[in-house]
Amino acid sequence: MTDSSPADLNSYAESAIVEDDALLAARSRADELGTAPVSPAVGALLAVLARATDARAVVEIGTGTGVSGLWLLNGMAADGVLTTIDPEPEHHRAARQSFAGGDIPAGRTRLINGTPLEVLPRLTDASYDLVFVDGPLIDHPRFVTEAIRMLRPGGVVVVHNATAQGAVGDPTRNDPLTAAAREAAMLIADDERLLPVVIPLGAGVLAAAKAR
Question: In angstroms, rounded to a whole number, what is the distance separating the alpha carbons of residues 83 and 208?
Fold first, then answer.
């Protein structure tokens, strides 16, 4: 018996997830616009975490074309509302098409066109069940700080590309993006209210649950 390599395990994790027509259409829009959506396995993880927390109020930083939003909505409570933030109007147009294609009622999504660093401080403290961070890596430390503030007790923060494409494990890498990823991870690790885990899916996921 031979052990599977990490690459083999990751490939299996991705191939095990089958996406529906709405998600495939959202991915096609992402290709057209040149955005990089979450992988199918990361999307499935988002749905599982949303369901596990019985999420009714979720914030997403980085709408894209709605791929991660559809996965989050698939796991959220039937009356849950997804607040998703993106500065690009064309992303919002594409995401609205994706949500409509997934038969998501309009009242379940709140799309905010704006810079996340300007929008997040206006969102209420301790009011969200899950915050998904998928914005520019350089801003991850500030996104994580806002996410921790916004999470209710028992809520979960999920950071996409938390490893900066694997660079955080290389001690010779000290570029701004790698430094930002490390700082965001340390903010979570140093907060005694948070229980974190690194999950080697997609571009690397860091998730943490806030104490109840």
Answer: 20
